[in-house]
Each structure stands twice: as C-alpha cells, then as structure tokens.
Amino acid sequence: MSRKKAGGIDWNKDHQEAEEAAMYQICVKGLLDNKWESWFKGFTLSQEGKNTVLTGPVPDQSALHGLLAVIRDLGLPLLSVNQVQGEGGNR
Q1: Do residues 12 and 6 touch, judged by C-beta distance below 8 A?
Q2: Model pTM?
Q3: What is the DSSP string of the chain?
C-alpha cells in the first residue's frame, strides 16, 4: 500500500459522507496561521490562547489515526483530541 502525501488530504474522500462523520476538536500547541488549512481540508482552525484547535468531521477511526499521524509527522505537539458530536448527531 502506498502512503499518500500528507498535504491536502481530504479526510472525507473515499469515506462516509461528512454528515455521518463524528465531529472532532483536536488541539495542538502553538499558533497555526491560515496557510495550514490546506493540510487539513474540511477542518476549521481557530486560536485559543497560544494553541490552535482544528475542528471538523472524521468519518472513521482509520481517518482519525491518519490525521493524528500527519499532526505527528509535522512535529505539532498534540494537546487533546475530543469527539464533540457523534455519528448522526449523537455525542
């Protein structure tokens, strides 16, 4: 299996529809500007204090692990991962 380049991955492509995906908030240490949004398609980036929160749909556990691997590979210190809304609107 070949590994895709991290930049620009569409986390919802080839997976369930975004409406069925669980919503996650992933907090990383440091302030990321808008240029980083291309690395995390489908996610919004917001700043809270000296940290950045990525919020968006994650269709399944495989996609979540892939997203966390990209964060690791970019050297971004991971502070928290929270599911904020479950599949079908349930938490």
Answers
A1: no
A2: 0.74
A3: -PPPPSTT-BTTTTSS-GGGSEEEEEEEES---GGGGGGSBT-EEEEETTEEEEEEEE-SHHHHHHHHHHHHHTTPPEEEEEEEE-GGG--
What does the alpha-carbon distance between residue 35 and residue 15 come to, in Å, rounded to a whole number?
25
Query: Which domains does the chain show, CATH number per domain?
Result: 19-89 (3.30.70)
pLDDT in tens, the chain (91 residues): 333 444 555 555 544 455 578 999 999 999 998 888 888 989 999 999 999 999 999 999 999 999 999 999 999 999 999 999 765 545 4
Return the closest-CA partner of residue 56 out of 4, 12, 15, 91. Answer: 12
